[in-house]
Backbone:
């Protein structure tokens, strides 16, 4: 598994979204691009988290943060996710490959049948991760998990982004 370091180039990320093709290298945010990796349609916690993200999109835009949510689901499951989570404005990427997930240091899990909401887990899927990428395409912050719960709070991230930008706070965790 890859361990990403801050202040280093973020891995490449190019994929399809429900809104069209998307490439991290093409992003030009004022402050950050936030990449939110989620488990997929089968995860009830992900659906709630994505709804919270949708509700925060305008505040992220005001803070100069571009946002995308990504999973290894296929296009059909991504469309179902958008519907179930009430996503109207969130850029929703799909088709994350095993290689891409590994490049980002995401943990992978094997499907175990139907979840509590009655949706079959895929044979394999990625666990959650959240990354802030600077406009120069270097990693500023990351949070990677092996479980669907205890994810970074969007209000806290927004507060941190405002403070970080105002104080020119450097990325931490850069030592090898």
Residues:
């Amino acid at each position: 598994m890859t361990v990403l370091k801050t202040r280093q180039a973020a891995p490449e990320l190019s994929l399809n979204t429900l809104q069209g093709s998307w490439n991290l290298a093409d992003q030009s945010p004022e402050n950050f691009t936030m990449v939110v990796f989620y488990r997929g349609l089968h995860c009830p916690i992900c659906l709630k988290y994505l709804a919270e993200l949708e509700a925060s999109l305008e505040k992220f835009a005001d803070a100069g943060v571009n946002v995308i949510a990504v999973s290894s689901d296929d296009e059909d499951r991504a469309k179902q996710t958008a519907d179930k989570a009430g996503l109207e404005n969130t850029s929703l990427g799909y088709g994350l490959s095993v290689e891409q997930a590994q490049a980002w240091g995401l943990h992978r899990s094997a499907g175990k049948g139907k979840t509590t909401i009655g949706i079959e887990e895929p044979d394999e899927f990625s666990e959650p991760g959240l990354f802030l990428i600077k406009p120069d395409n270097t990693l500023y912050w990351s949070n990677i998990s092996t479980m669907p719960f205890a994810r970074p709070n969007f209000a806290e991230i927004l507060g941190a982004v405002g403070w970080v930008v105002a104080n020119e706070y450097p990325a931490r965790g850069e030592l090898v």
User: Anything to note?
Assistant: The CA atoms of residues 92 and 159 lie 24 Å apart.
